[in-house]
Write a structure and sequence with these properties.
With 1533 residues, the chain is an alpha/beta fold. The protein is built from 57 helices and 55 strands. The strands form 15 sheets. Strands 3-23-4-22-21-5-8-10-9-20 form a 10-stranded mixed β-sheet, sandwiched between helices.
């Protein structure tokens, strides 16, 4: 009986899918019968591992079992295949047979082969074993085929392809089935394979010489590698000219065929050329060829000028003719072919080689569910693909296993334990059923539904129903089948039938079925149920062997004394009897005789020589011809496997897996290749020797090798040549212009990159390793981090750079980059991550002792540094901006743009600037602004990230999945959401249900519970305040006994317990974060305590938990393994999330190397349900939503500065003119509170007209513009203060404005407005001295706020009066309240601030205040840690202290320390140092500071102090989550 039934529909959320929309396209008798099978799902049986060959790290499989059950197993295991080739039965009416000598010994084979030649009787020419018995009823075949295709589709990845090999008998019907299952739009080709030359099939029709192969893809995106065939001799003769050197060339027309290009003069010829002057000039300047009358690659006319057919093309530079869909160049496998496995339906390896090479890439999974002779698995293995071979026949499994073992493949042999002991396969078993069931005979009067009848003296004829073992759907006896028996089959029997017997293999519930029969009184016929398995269990008699083992010197000897196979002996006996009956005096027959020991029946022997327990696996396969076998020291035997296959496998493991490859003692060419290969990839030597020995080895194998070796040696040669061409030894020196010896130390290290992958090759080709500045636009997860490493390494090695800086937008991302750089460079380079605190803690960076250094910081910190030290810019040799699309990120965007503008204007041509982003659709425009003609754009559309599926939830309880075209649904999972009544809590009267389909958070929670066992799940919330709602709902469900077990079951419970305890230390045992953590759900948001965020990120990365509830912070650049992103809202507050930000969010889903695909599910049912409704805005919302998923519709990166003069929305249908806004405010820019007052007046006037629209964006939008103006003002202060000569201020402002990205993107009108704003700001700052402007520039807060702070400093006598830290904190808090105006809970800010720097937790603060923990966190993280910290930095920068005035008091040291305490929420310098240099967690920093017993340890000494107390420190960390110990361990190394 199946363990369960797995739905056919991909990625189910719960249970099995009910195909409510089941609607067949192809109509035929019984077409809808398959619907019941699909509703029930695929039967999942226990899978038993029979054998493991090799280590099998790739998870390759050879499965004995039928297709549907195999797919159920794969789907349950979360395995998805990337390419499927199937060669199913053709419904041709043939009984395919395979010559079978069970594990045939060559001696037996020789005798039988001789007998076959002597006997002229077809049926005696082989042991026939029927495989699929390709004799079908058409309708049953189509239902069977439909079920198999649906099963296969369910395990195909989103970008998978399928090839279905079929012939003329039923191929036209199968094509329609494929359209049904995969969609007409996903049909790619009907390939015609001409398998044989013309022959005389019939006198009445043309010869049938072809098969059809239908090629479909799963979606619009799928791998396809174009294959080429050589040019024909006729084409070469007609089109090409032979040069003296033997090369062929021709001329291409360079005129624009559409006549749309602007004409220009190219070296004397004016025409509408089809290419740009720059590219044309590259042809002109190319190296001179041997083509007469030419210049470079340009052909010249008699006048010495280019003519229209002027481009010179050489044939050897072109790949050939693209392969079409008519394949006549691959011959079928003839019986005497070296490739033949004596398998009737065997396909040639060349055919599969072409298919697999075209539609898959290395390491992809290739599956064949009707595997036959195993050619698909064998070719996939040779092409470095992973493989799954499945077949129902034992012969197929044995043939494939032996074939793969001979090829050196590693794999598991698995068997589906469906309770059926098949004789050899289902067809043979069905043939023998009548002999196995006592008394069962044919009965002509019965319908074909009945297998036969049993005669009984009392009851007469008893019809017997036997399930069809070929049809997986009929194996289960359920109510549906029993209903058919009672109401269709029995009524058609004769009236005298009193009893029927129903055999079954699986049954849903025997008691339930018997009750069903009793309750149905429509028949008086007795129905008896019998288990067919009890009969089939005795069919197969296992092989028997006697052996003994004895210890010998250095190993063991194993001797096989006796072997017996009842199955083989019975076949031999049957053969002898038939042969004797057909022999004659002229052709006598000598019987085949087997010795008493039976040892000649053995061909292969597998010995497990290492396993001490657990699963059995074979370390060696020994082919034998003798009576006894000795096996000793398997390692020695492996050393003797000196084949191309073995060498190829070793090289693949070395290149792709980093597996150690030893040098070999040289015997001949095999060892030389191994050693020269290691010389080259390890030392950069012996390349020519490697190549020359390759060809020698190839010739040796061609002369002396077997067919497999000949096949593999060509692959070996190709792999090594391609590897050498893309090796780091080859590409890094040439693309960087750095000598090999300079790269040598790195390339010889174990951590070096052996080969450059597409992302690295791209940056190499674009010149980034030579110092070229560039914008790099590549998808998430394709190797950007290693690219950054190579760019920095090349800059250091070339001595172009000593100091590189990496700028990233988030502290978490800076942490991640820092760890990556530590791992890449180790102790060779100094890694220095700036603190987040905006203060002068960078003065000692450029010590003479530090030669090479990598700095890591946020844009704000770098901007702060440049404002305080203008000369810092000249010290940096290489700037790398990661996630470089922040130009339009509100106030941060303005800071970012002005920072990049400043660097752009002030760096020299020797300094390199690289900006990387995954979501920069207008990267070309930004590159043009950023570099003009000095840099380049590095992007490649062919480099793609992991595929994702997009689903929309519906109140109809379905999830609807769409491909790229959101107007056409791809598929849907029906009835996926099961609404259940919840247990009532005390005193509740009304019923409660879950999920509430009107709540997107409920739908998200439901999906998270059902999906978490498949991989990481993130519930994404648009607003911080929704966190409480979701967590309290989860806790409430637990109180109501809703089954949340899956959430906790998919965690590392020991680690989860530590995480829960850690969260509890901050929030208390009753907080919803703590209670949810106990259930297996963790939070992640900006307001969360920093240590908790770090712990959650680490737990997700290591898959210690599978469910997180988060805001957008989790996805902004941090590499987290999330497979499912459940989106509860497409808005951030009142605003629709940007498509670019959403694409970036999606990019964090299904990270490459972690998951093969991911899913984004929109859980707001209204979006899908109202998608066609214009009246309620549903259609608009749907359009807005689907745009988020379309990379082509991703909005271009804009400019926050430009937004200052553009129109802006204050409500969904109300826009404010940017021009009018500038006109109103331009004359009031020097008034401190004008914009805030203006925003309030505008909102008041708006609400008077629209009283219900309180949720508008007026104040938010205008205050954003105030931030942008302050940023511009501050930057102009920087520029003016850095000038030694006072220039015309208007000209200066214009110059600065015209160099911004905003100006480059602006319309002419917008440019006028921008200049107007810059000039007005410049005019306002003219009144201040250069010294004052310098201080205002340092403060980075705008002139209005800076002047207010200056007044406050004077009023509070900060340079005259000595303050304690507590007193300073009090007066600073008062200033903060004065600046920020009214805000919620402002009366608590004083006391909370003091508790915060004392190290109290949110729970402790909450216990003493009258506000909630969430509000405490918001005040601490936003108001105190960020805004007050910034304010204290402003005060430090604006205090004027005269060093010669002894009466003045310098408060800056105490302010600097206070600033850091406010930033980190800790009470002393030691805790601050731990937060800055080790891990930023308040509680742990305070505890470790107590262990060190010193409150004043600086950042430069903290690691050494921790090392000195390491035993005590690590003992303390044992009770904390794993993150802290891991982090400290890395830093201490």
């Amino acid at each position: 009986m199946p363990i369960k039934y797995v739905p056919f529909i991909p990625e189910p959320v719960e249970g099995q899918a009910v195909l409510g929309n089941f609607n067949r396209i192809l109509r035929y008798k019984g077409a809808d019968d398959v619907s019941m099978t699909l509703q029930r799902g695929m039967p999942l049986y226990e899978m038993e591992k029979q054998e493991t060959v090799g280590e099998n790290s790739d998870g390759n499989m050879v499965i004995r079992g039928e297709c549907v059950s195999a797919c159920a197993y794969l789907k349950e295991q979360g395995i998805q295949v990337d390419l499927v080739y199937i060669d199913p039965p053709f419904a041709s009416g043939a009984d395919y047979a395979k010559k079978v000598y069970i594990r045939r010994n060559p001696k037996v084979a020789e005798v039988i082969a001789q007998a076959e030649q002597e006997l002229d009787v077809d049926e005696l020419k082989a042991f026939e074993e029927k495989m699929y018995g390709d004799v079908w009823d058409k309708e049953k075949y189509l239902n069977w085929m439909y079920e198999n295709l649906m099963a296969i589709k369910s395990v195909m990845s989103e970008n998978a392809s399928i090839y279905v090999h079929i012939d003329w008998h039923i191929g036209h019907y199968v094509k329609i089935l494929l359209d049904e299952v995969f969609g007409e739009d996903n049909f790619r080709n009907e390939i015609t394979w001409v398998r044989t030359a013309s022959h005389n099939d019939s006198k009445q029709n043309y010869s049938r010489v072809k098969d059809s192969i239908f090629f479909y893809s799963r979606s619009e995106e799928y791998p396809f590698n174009i294959q080429y065939t050589p040019y024909t001799e006729e084409y070469i003769a007609d089109e090409w000219t032979k040069a003296p050197s033997g090369r062929y060339y021709k001329f291409e027309n360079m005129l624009d065929p559409q006549n749309k290009m602007a004409a220009y003069d190219f070296h004397g010829t004016v025409a509408r050329w089809r290419t740009t002057p720059e590219k044309f000039e590259e042809l002109w300047n190319a190296p001179q060829t041997e083509v007469p009358n030419s210049h470079g690659r340009v052909r010249l006319g008699k006048n010495g000028k280019p003519i229209k057919r002027c481009r010179i093309v050489f044939m050897d530079e072109l790949p050939g003719v693209p392969l079409n869909d008519n394949w006549s160049d691959i011959a079928y496998v003839a019986g005497r072919s070296a490739e033949s496995a004596n398998y009737s339906t065997q396909k040639p390896e060349a055919l599969l080689n072409r298919i697999i090479t075209s539609s898959s890439n290395e390491n992809m999974i290739v599956a064949d569910f009707f595997g036959g002779s195993g050619v698909t698995a064998a070719v996939a293995n040779k092409l470095a693909r992973k493989f799954i071979h499945c077949d129902i026949g034992l012969n197929s499994v044995q043939t494939t296993r032996d074939r793969l073992v001979a090829d050196g493949a590693e794999f598991d042999v698995l068997e589906i334990k469906d309770g059926v002991q098949l004789y050899r396969n289902p067809v043979q078993t069905m043939d023998k059923i009548k002999f196995l069931i006592p008394g069962l005979k044919n009965e002509d009067s019965l319908d074909s539904f009945w297998e036969g009848a049993i005669s009984d003296s009392k009851l007469g004829t008893i019809p017997a129903y036997v399930p069809n073992l070929m049809d997986s759907a009929s194996k289960l006896l359920d109510k549906v089948t029993m209903n058919r028996i009672i109401h269709q089959a029995i009524p058609e029997l004769d009236n005298d039938i009193k009893k029927v017997i129903v055999y079954y293999i699986d049954i849903t519930d025997e008691v339930e079925i018997m009750n069903f029969i009793k309750e149905d009184d429509s028949t008086t016929v007795e129905i008896e149920l019998r288990d067919l398995k009890s009969i089939l269990d005795d069919v197969v008699i296992g092989d028997y062997a006697e052996f003994h083992a004895e210890e010998i010197a250095g190993g063991y000897a194993v001797a096989i004394d006796k072997f017996m196979s009842d199955r083989v002996l019975s076949k031999i006996t049957e053969f002898n009897q038939k042969a004797f009956l057909n022999s004659s005096a002229k052709k006598p027959y000598k019987s085949i005789e087997i010795s008493e020991e039976g040892l000649e029946l053995i061909e292969f022997l597998s010995l497990d020589c290492t396993a001490n327990g657990g699963e059995w696996h074979s370390d060696s396969e020994i082919k034998i011809d003798s009576a006894k076998v000795l096996a000793a020291r398997v390692v020695d035997l492996i050393d003797e496997e000196r084949s191309p296959q073995k060498l190829l496998t070793n090289i693949y493991n070395y290149l792709l897996g980093g597996v150690y490859l030893p040098y070999l003692r040289v015997i001949d060419t095999y060892e030389r290749i191994n050693n020269f290969f290691l010389d080259y990839f390890g030392k950069g030597k012996s390349l020519e020797a490697l190549k020359s020995n390759l060809w020698v080895y190839r010739n040796e194998i061609y002369e002396n090798g077997d067919p497999d070796s000949i096949f593999y040696v060509d692959i070996l040669v190709a792999v090594i040549i391609v590897a050498c061409e893309n090796s780091s030894w080859s590409l890094l020196p040439s693309s960087s212009g750095i000598l090999d010896e300079e790269w040598e130390s790195y390339l010889q290290s174990k951590m070096s990159i052996k080969m450059l992958w597409p992302a690295q090759r791209l940056i190499a080709e674009k010149g980034l390793l030579r110092g070229e500045s560039s914008i790099v636009q590549l998808p998430t997860g394709v190797g950007k981090t290693r690219s950054i490493e190579l760019i920095i390494r090349a800059a250091f090695l070339s001595e172009r750079a000593n100091i590189a800086i990496i700028v990233a937008p988030l502290r978490a991302l800076c942490n991640e980059i820092t760890m990556d750089m530590y791992k890449a460079f180790g102790n060779d380079v100094t890694i220095n991550q700036f603190s987040d605190v905006l203060q002068n803690d960078f003065w000692n960076l450029f010590s003479e002792d530090i030669k090479r250094q990598i700095l890591i910081c946020t844009p704000e910190k770098l901007s702060y540094v440049l404002h305080h030290d203008p000369f810092f810019l000249s010290a940096i040799d290489l700037f790398v901006f990661d996630e470089g699309h922040m130009f339009d990120d509100g106030g941060r965007g303005a800071t970012y743009e002005l920072l990049v503008t400043h660097i752009r204007q002030n760096i020299t041509s020797e300094q390199q600037l690289v900006l990387l982003s995954a979501v920069l659709p207008n990267s070309g425009d930004i590159a043009q602004w950023l570099f003009e003609d000095r840099g380049c754009l590095a992007t490649d559309d062919s480099i793609v990230s992991t595929p994702k599926s997009i689903g929309f939830s519906s109140t109809q309880r379905d999830i609807h999945f769409f491909s790229d075209d959101k107007s056409n649904e791809d598929y849907y999972i029906p009835r996926i959401l099961r609404v259940e009544q919840l247990k009532k809590l005390p005193r509740e009267r009304s019923n409660k249900y879950f999920p509430d389909l009107s709540l997107s958070t409920d739908v998200a929670i439901y999906n998270a519970i059902k999906l978490c066992h498949n991989g990481g799940v993130a519930i994404y919330l648009g607003q911080q305040r929704s966190m409480k709602t979701v967590f309290e709902r989860i806790i409430n469900l637990d109180k109501r006994n809703y089954d949340l077990k899956a959430l906790k079951d998919n965690t590392n419970q020991a680690e989860l317990s530590k995480i829960k305890g850690f969260i509890e230390s901050y929030y208390g045992s009753e907080h919803y974060y703590t209670k949810a953590a106990e259930l297996g759900v963790l939070p992640h948001s900006s307001n969360l305590q920093n240590g908790v965020k770090l712990v959650v990120e680490h737990a997700l990365k290591n898959k210690y938990v599978s469910c997180v509830v988060c805001t957008s912070t989790l996805a902004q650049g941090v590499n987290i393994p999330i497979k499912y992103l459940l989106v509860t809202s497409i808005r951030n507050g009142l605003k629709l999330v940007k498509a670019r930000d959403f694409q970036n969010l999606m990019g964090r889903t299904a990270r490459a190397g972690i998951y093969t695909e991911g899913s984004i599910i929109i859980t707001d049912c209204k979006i899908y349900d109202n998608r066609t409704n214009w009246k309620n805005g549903g259609r608009y919302l749907w359009n807005d939503c689907v745009k988020l998923f379309d990379t082509k519709l991703t909005e271009p990166c804009g400019s926050s500065i430009l937004s200052l003069v553009q129109d802006f929305n204050i409500d969904y249908d109300v826009t404010v003119s940017g021009e009018k806004f500038i006109d109103i405010v331009i004359d009031h820019l020097d008034e401190r509170d004008f914009l805030l007052d203006y925003a309030k007046k505008l909102e008041k006037a708006y609400l008077k007209v629209n009283p219900k629209r309180t949720q508008n964006l007026i104040v938010q939008e205008i205050l954003l513009r105030q931030d942008i103006i302050s940023n511009i003002e501050n930057y102009l202060c920087l520029v003016r203060s850095a000038e030694t000569l006072v220039n015309d201020s208007k000209k200066s402002a214009v110059d600065i404005c015209t160099n911004t990205l905003a100006y480059a993107m602006a319309t002419e009108k917008e440019k006028e407005l921008l200049i107007k704003v810059f000039q007005k700001i410049e005019e306002n700052i003219q009144q201040y001295s250069v010294e004052k402007l310098s201080r205002y520039s340092n403060a980075m807060s705008g002139i209005g706020l800076s002047s207010l702070i200056e007044e406050w400093i004077v009023q509070n006598e900060l340079t005259e009066k000595i303050y304690t830290e507590t007193e300073l904190l009090y007066v600073i808090t008062e200033l903060y309240l004065q600046i920020c105006g009214d805000f919620r809970y402002q009366e608590h800010i004083q006391s909370i601030c003091k508790k915060w720097i004392d190290g109290q937790t949110p729970m402790e603060i909450n216990n003493k205040e009258t506000i909630g923990i969430a509000e405490v966190e918001s005040l601490c993280n936003k108001r105190i840690s960020y805004e007050m910290n910034f304010l204290i930095g402003n005060i430090c920068d604006l205090i004027e202290v005269d060093g010669e005035n002894e009466e003045q008091v310098d408060q800056r040291n105490i302010l600097t320390l206070l600033q850091k305490k406010v930033k980190y929420g800790v009470p002393n310098m030691t805790a601050i140092s731990i937060c800055e240099s080790v891990f930023n967690d308040r509680l742990l920093a305070i505890e470790l500071a107590q262990i060190l017993s010193d409150a004043n340890i600086g950042t430069d000494k903290i690691l050494n102090m921790l090392k000195a107390h390491s035993e005590e420190i690590f003992s303390c960390l044992d009770s904390y989550p794993e993150y802290f110990k891991d982090r400290l361990s890395v830093l201490m190394k």
